[in-house]
Amino acid sequence: MTKICYLDNNATTRVAPEVRDVMLPFLGELYGNPSSMHAFGGEIARYVDRAREEVARFINAEPDEVIFTSCATESDNTAIRGAAEAAGPGLRVVTTAVEHPAVLQPCRRLKALGYEEIELPVDAGGLLDLDRLREAVTPGSLVSVMWANNETGVLFPMEEIADICRERGATLHTDAVQAAGKTPVDVKKVPVDMLSMSGHKFHAPKGIGFLYVRRGTKLKPFMLGGHQEHSRRAGTENVPYIIGLAKACEIARIGMAEEGRKLAALRDRLEAGILATCRNVRVNGDHAHRLPNTLNVSFEYIEGEAIAYRLSDLGICISTGSACASGSLDPSHVIRAMGVPFTAVHGSVRFSLSRYNTADDIDYVLAKLPGVVGALRELSPFGPDKNVTTFS
């Protein structure tokens, strides 16, 4: 079998061995339902309570402000649709053009239902114009702005965004999925009202996430049925995965600073190597404000999908953008929003690293990528050396 060189960690991550180990008892002898009245169920409930405390500590929240969900998509939908339902018709919803589909689609759904929706543009570096945000946010608005972009790694200035929303009496939600475990998230320092995260982005299993809801925030429950999560999210608690999520939060909280330095060094090594060995390539996203693990580059005159497929044959796993949109042949909405030239917009690919990547992984990619890019350009009828006119 071909060696797997996995550089698609913004899509999903390997479950940490420590996380798997703490989950196993809850897939065996500790199988009780934490909502049951008997002592066995009460024992399991105490484990869930301790897990909630660890998750809250991860973002400097209070335990009763944490709602366990199945994933960040559920958390995003709960926050946006629940806040809109609580506010009623006439609500203004403000978001950005580069949000994950789990935010953009609920916002656009609200527009179809008669709510006012505004999608703010970004500049060539993927950054938001805060003056335009100030103009768009009115008292009582619902604002949803991601903490870090999943495709480019660009970090938005959440502290300033939170201040603007506070000044105008708006409710602020942030999709912090890609920030989890890569950059500090503190909801007391950055007073967002709601925040979404998903465990599988930082070495917990798929199928578990959480929504932070600041005390006093008006929110209608999205999942109806039982009384779980203090009647804010019905459904029997996914205990093994909640325990695993808490362990992933603990590991990330303790090792984040050191891991960030390591990942930034590997990313910079990869970036420098690509720029040195490949012609007609551009790095997408602001250099000064980005996650340490993410590199998005555009190779002109060739298709990103072709690059990804050829690298896959060599055991190298990358993506052309959001995993949730990977079935589409349209260019990334994030890259288009940044105004990347048409000669490069289809040639964008994303490399995303994790704690399990090494310098050997980077060297392997740099040994294989230039040949792949060169071969694809030989096959392409387009390019500066070809006598074919290119069109957008």
Overview of the molecule:
The chain has helices spanning 17-23, 39-59, 72-87, 101-112, 130-136, 158-167, 228-231, 239-277, 304-313, 333-337, 342-345, 359-379, and strands at residues 5-6, 66-69, 92-96, 116-120, 142-144, 171-175, 194-198, 209-213, 281-284, 294-299, 316-317, 348-352. The radius of gyration is 22 Å and the shape is globular. The longest helix is centred in the middle third of the chain and has 39 residues, at 239-277. With 392 residues, it is of the alpha/beta class. It has a seven-stranded mixed β-sheet with strand order 2-8-7-6-5-3-4, sandwiched between helices. It folds into two domains: 5-12 and 255-379, Aspartate Aminotransferase, domain 1; 17-252, 3-Layer(aba) Sandwich (Aspartate Aminotransferase, domain 2), CATH 3.40.640.10. Helix 2 runs parallel beside helix 8, helix 3 (72-87) runs parallel beside helix 4 and helix 8 packs across helix 12 (359-379). The protein contains twelve helices and twelve strands.
β-strand percent reads: 5-15%
CATH architecture heading of the largest domain: 3-Layer(aba) Sandwich
Taking the sheet with the most strands, its summary is: 7 strands, mixed
Oligomer: single chain
Could you name the CATH topology of the largest domain?
A: Aspartate Aminotransferase, domain 2
Q: Report the count of strand segments.
A: 12
**3D shape:** globular
Low-confidence stretches: 388-392
Number of domains: 2
Which class do the helix and strand fractions yield? alpha/beta
Q: What is the top-level CATH class of the largest domain?
A: Alpha Beta
Termini separation: 40 Å
Computed CA radius of gyration, to the nearest angstrom = 22 Å
Strand order of the largest sheet: 2-8-7-6-5-3-4
**How confident is the prediction overall: mean pLDDT?**
94
What is the overall number of helices? 12
